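SEQUENCE-TO-STRUCTURE ENTRY
===========================
Question of interest: how does this chain fold, as expressed in C-alpha cells?
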Amino acid sequence: MQYFNLHTHKFTNNPTTLELVNQYPWEFDESIPHYSIGIHPWYIDENRLELDLKIIEEKLQQPECLALGECGLDKRIEIPLAVQIKVFKQQIALADKYKKPLILHLVAAFDELIEIKKRLDISVPVIIHGFSKNAQLAKQLLDNGFYLSFGKYLLQSRSVGTELEYVFKSVPNHRFFLETDTVEESLEEVYTLAAKYKKITLDELQKQIQNNFSLVFKSF
C-alpha cells in the first residue's frame, strides 16, 4: 500500500491505493474490497432504521469492513437533532461491539460530539472526515482523542489562502489521515500538497500514514 484513502465515494481500483469506500446499507456493493458502512445523518429513515442497523451489524463482522461510517451529527438539516443523536448512539454501540473505528460527518455539533464521547466512553478510534475548521477546534478535538482527516478543503487552501494550511501543519503527524471524499482531484494530489505543508518527502508521508493506519485499523 503506497496510499491510503480514508474516505471516498468512488472506487477506482488503483493497485497502489487502499480505498476505504463509503457504503450505505440500502445500496450495498458486494464487489468493493474495503469499505466503511453507516447511516449518514442526512439519510436517516426511521421507517427502515431497524433493517439498516441489522445490515450494518452483519457487515461489521466481515474483514472487508474496516470502519463504521460515515455517521454523525448535522445541525443544518431538517432531521431533528434528537433523532440524529439516537441513531448516532446506536451506531457507536455497534462500533464498540465489533471494535471498528468510527468515521464521522460533523456539522455545527462539535460540543455535542465531545459530550457524547465523554459520556459513552467510546473505546474505538474516532476520525472526523473532511476537517475544515479552525486551530482552536482542531486542538480541542485532538485533546479529546479524535483523529482528523483532510482532503477537499485542504486542496482548496492552495488558492484561497485559508487558515487550514496552518491548522494542518499543527496536527501531530500520528493523528491525521488524507482522503478524496467526492472531489475529482486524485489522492496523489492530496498527498503531494500534504507533504509540502508538512515539509517532509512524499515517501516520509506515505510511511507516516501507513503507521497511522496500522495503529487505528488494528484488525485489518
Observations:
- The first strand starts at residue 3 and ends at 8.
